[in-house]
Amino acid sequence: MLERTLSVVGLQFAKFQFRSDFDTPQPLTNFFTSAKNVLITMPRGYDNAVHAGNALHKYKDRLDHLHLTIIHTGTRETNLSSFLHSQIIRISPTDINRLSLPTRGLMERIFTRQYDVALDLNLDFVLHSAYICKASRAKARVGFYRGSLSDLFFNVRVDLKQRRAPQSMYENFAACLMMF
Q1: Which domains does the chain show, CATH number per domain?
Q2: pLDDT tens digits, 61-80
Q3: What is the pLDDT of residue 158?
Q4: DSSP three-state, residue 165
Q5: How many Å apart are CA 70 and CA 39, to the nearest integer?
Q6: What's the rounded Cα separation, in Å, for the pair 104 and 178?
Q7: What is the full DSSP assignment across 129-157?
Q8: HEC string for 62-104
Q9: Per-residue pLDDT at 57
Q10: Model confidence pLDDT, tens digit, residues 94-111
Q11: pTM score
Q12: Using an 8 Å Cβ cutoff, are 78 and 72 in contact?
């Protein structure tokens, strides 16, 4: 109960902090395939992380020019770490504060470069992942549609049917990204 309350306080703090950040309309033509630096927050749970990594790995040849910064809570690797230019940042429980927001130390480790695209691959809303994407100030911040919460953190929202298996959803998501 207390953890949920603190998470709600964290969400309100994030809303307050980003209250003056407004996204300007921009063309989406080739926003992903022409990017140079991409920030990817992997889903919680190893199985979903493997599914997401496999889905994006299918397009490795088309994405080999990208520098990927992969944020992951697990200790085991996924296929995304095989990209030529990839950096993996592991999140430990101490990197997330009591309000479910990332700590300053984690943010400093992540933002050593500017990002063109930020992807949140969590199927459910995860506050610290969404916060990292918004704080990246990437031109395109992509996440799954989760109601009004996704409007605050993402400017590109993908709405996939939740009735499918996660592997199928990630494959469709990756195919959708390759169109841009």
Answers
A1: 2-17+29-178 (3.40.50.2000)
A2: 788 888 989 999 877 777 77
A3: 82
A4: coil
A5: 6
A6: 33
A7: HHHHHHHTT-SEEEEE-BTHHHHHH-SEE
A8: HHCCCEEEEEECCCCCCHHHHCCCEEEEECCHHHECCCCCECH
A9: 84
A10: 999 999 999 999 999 999
A11: 0.86
A12: yes
Residue 139 CA to residue 20 CA, distance in Å, equals 16
Owner of token pair 């996440």:
143
Place of tokens 């990209």: 83
Is residue 119 within 8 A of residue 154, CB to CB? The reply is no
Q: Rounded to an integer, what is the distance from CA 20 to the centroid of its chain?
A: 21
Q: Is 65 exposed, middle or buried (0-12, 13-18, 19+ CB in 10 A)?
A: exposed
CB neighbours of residue 168 within 10 Å: 14
> For tokens 């207390």, what's the residue?
2
- The pLDDT mean for the chain works out to 85
| Per-residue model confidence as pLDDT tens digits over 51-62 | 988 888 888 778
Residue count (the chain): 180
- Which element (helix H / strand E) includes 173? helix 166-178
Q: Whole-angstrom Cα distance, residue 157 to residue 138?
A: 14
